[in-house]
Amino acid sequence: MSTPSPKLLFATTNKGKLRELRQLVGDSVEVVSLADLPPVPEPEEDGDTFEANAVKKAVEYARATGLPALADDSGLCVDALDGQPGVLSARYAPGDDKARYEKLLSELSGVPDEKRTASFRCALALAWPDGRTHVEEGRCEGRIGYAPKGEHGFGYDPVFILLDSGRSLAELTAEEKSAISHRGAAFRKMKPKLLSLAARP
Ligand SMILES: O=c1[nH]c(=O)c2ncn([C@@H]3O[C@H](COP(=O)(O)OP(=O)(O)OP(=O)(O)O)[C@@H](O)[C@H]3O)c2[nH]1
Ligand SMILES: [Mg+2]
Fold it and tell me: Would you list which residues are annotated within the binding site for Mg(2+)?
């Protein structure tokens, strides 16, 4: 029996997102990641919204590879910073994730608990090689802590505190995070479209 051909490209360069998307999709759809394919130029993320950037990434990766592509544009919107870093979350500070959340903590120094509210947002875009697209969004509410805690997750997770439990997103297992996260919420809305890719004629 021949190996079945891949049905869906996870079009992200972010290993944390890739890990979460793989766990969310399980074995319901055959997937490949960018690392499995010949190099493809990285789209410029010049949109003003998560949706615009997610669609741009999905369309460009689908055209370049000939595969249906699922792209994720996401970020952290902090109320006391007028929604920043928002779509610029990945570029908020040079260096690594730690440098970025440390900058955030320093920007919020002296800001009291009740004004440290924030939300994670995620737009997931599915694009077919012919240019058709479908977008779903999700969000997760919380507040920014005062020091990092937890070893799981990625990005700003160690400083993002959940309102009900007081735990950081980085203190949750991958399954616990996906059950309440912006990405998990967007993914569950997108899932029927993804399953339709796997359907055999
Ligand atoms: O703590 C976090 N938990 C999350 O669940 C999460 N989701 C997104 N982010 C942050 O938001 C930016 C995304 O930027 P982004 O959408 O452009 O992705 P990226 O550039 O890393 O990869 P790509 O998918 O574009 O290839 C990056 O700084 C991420 O750290 C998160 N941080
Ligand atoms: Mg990016």
Answer: 44, 73
Q: What digits encode the pLDDT tens for the residues 21-38?
A: 999 999 888 999 999 999
Q: Mind giving me the DSSP string for 119-140?
A: EEEEEEEEE-TTS-EEEEEEEE
Closest residue CA from atom 20 of ligand 1: 90
Does the CB atom of residue 13 touch ligand 1 within 6 A?
yes
pLDDT tens by residue, 105-164:
999 999 999 999 999 999 999 999 999 999 999 999 999 999 999 999 999 999 999 999
Residue with CA nearest ligand 1 atom 29: 155
Pocket lining: 156 vs ligand 1, CB cutoff 6 Å: yes
Q: Where are the domains of the chain?
A: 8-198
Give the residue among 12, 13, 17 at the shortest CA–CA distance from 181: 17
* Structure-token pair, residue 77: 């919107």
Binding site membership of 136 for ligand 1 (Cβ less than 6 Å): no
Architecture of the domain spanning 8-198: Alpha-Beta Complex (3.90)
